[in-house]
Structure to design on (323 residues):
């Protein structure tokens, strides 16, 4: 809940900041285009890959995407089921997600257009196990993220950042690197 | 410009895959190692974590899923793996119990023993089917 609150503060504050700095040059207009993106979220213990589709507002530089992410392999996980019983499964994970993010600031670095971005990924985390009909416990996740965005003339973006993603696994760190490629259609 | 280049690459890749998959070389010859007869059974190997001198690890092999509770074999293993020769086309599951004074870890894995095939000159070649159930402790 606190992450959603934090995101909306960042989201709302940017409109104020950008209006102060840029309203004298141009008047921003909503310009929404459809987007497709490939998502990679990983750390040393885990990896998830996914596809998303959504919209990007080129005027106010925000985006929203609905996606499907999965761990493309079975990973051994241990779930404490009782006081003295730990169940070890080989698990596959799925995430049906909604990403909301906002790009802000502009830098020119060695001729490349660089921006910062911040946002949140929410969704339903599902999973199944090998050898049993039992599915993994379902979780609603809220994962804030932020980082750097390489902007290819508003045609596409390459986003590299950090994501705090709690997947409720004790053997996997919540800290993940996110690498996403987004193309405007 | 980048947008058009991306579309061009995607369409070219698609055309390549669709046109290249269905061609058969008229001079194609099946290798001598190709077995065209279907194999009805294969190896199901259970891997566990076992160190010499340590207590044995109780292991259960199930036909189907664990919940089906159809036990094919149950014993305590004093080695790191065991292999069973079982019918193809069925699902198997295995559980290994690692018991210590503090806790018991129940490691589960399951999979289907499938036909192991490859294609040569539009002919299906059957190889010996194997599946590994990984019940090694994390």
């Amino acid at each position: 809940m606190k992450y959603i609150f934090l995101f909306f503060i960042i989201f709302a504050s940017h409109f104020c900041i950008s209006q102060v700095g840029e309203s004298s040059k141009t008047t921003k207009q909503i310009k929404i285009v459809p987007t497709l993106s490939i998502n990679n979220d990983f750390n040393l213990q885990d990896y998830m890959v996914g596809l998303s589709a959504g919209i990007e507002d080129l005027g106010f530089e925000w985006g929203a995407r609905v996606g499907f992410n999965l761990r493309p392999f079975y990973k051994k996980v241990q779930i404490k089921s009782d006081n003295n019983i730990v169940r070890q499964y080989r698990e596959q994970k799925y995430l049906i997600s909604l990403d909301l993010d906002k790009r802000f600031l502009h830098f020119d670095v060695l001729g490349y257009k660089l921006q910062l971005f911040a946002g949140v990924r929410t969704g339903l985390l599902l999973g199944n196990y090998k050898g049993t009909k039992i599915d993994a416990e379902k979780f609603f996740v809220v994962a804030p993220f932020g980082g750097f965005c390489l902007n290819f003339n508003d045609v596409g973006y390459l986003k590299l950042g950090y994501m705090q993603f709690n997947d409720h696994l004790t053997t996997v760190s919540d800290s993940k690197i996110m690498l996403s490629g987004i193309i405007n259609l | 410009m980048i947008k058009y280049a991306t579309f061009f690459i995607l369409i070219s890749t698609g055309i390549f895959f669709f046109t290249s998959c269905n061609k058969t070389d008229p001079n194609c010859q099946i290798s001598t190692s190709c077995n065209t007869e279907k194999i009805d059974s294969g190896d199901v190997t259970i891997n566990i974590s076992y160190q010499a001198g340590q207590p044995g690890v109780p292991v259960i092999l199930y036909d189907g899923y664990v919940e089906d509770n159809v036990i094919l074999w149950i014993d305590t293993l004093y080695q790191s793996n065991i292999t069973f020769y079982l019918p193809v086309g069925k699902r198997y599951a295995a559980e290994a119990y690692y018991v210590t004074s503090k806790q018991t870890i129940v490691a589960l894995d399951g999979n289907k023993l499938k036909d192991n095939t490859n294609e040569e000159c539009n002919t299906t070649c059957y190889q010996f089917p194997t599946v590994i159930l990984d019940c090694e402790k994390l």
Notes: Chain B touches chain A at residues 2-3, 6, 62, 65-67, 93-95, 102-111, 133-135, 137-138 (CB under 8 Å). Helices of chain B lie at 2-20. The longest strand of chain B covers residues 91-99. The first helix of chain B runs from residue 2 to 20.
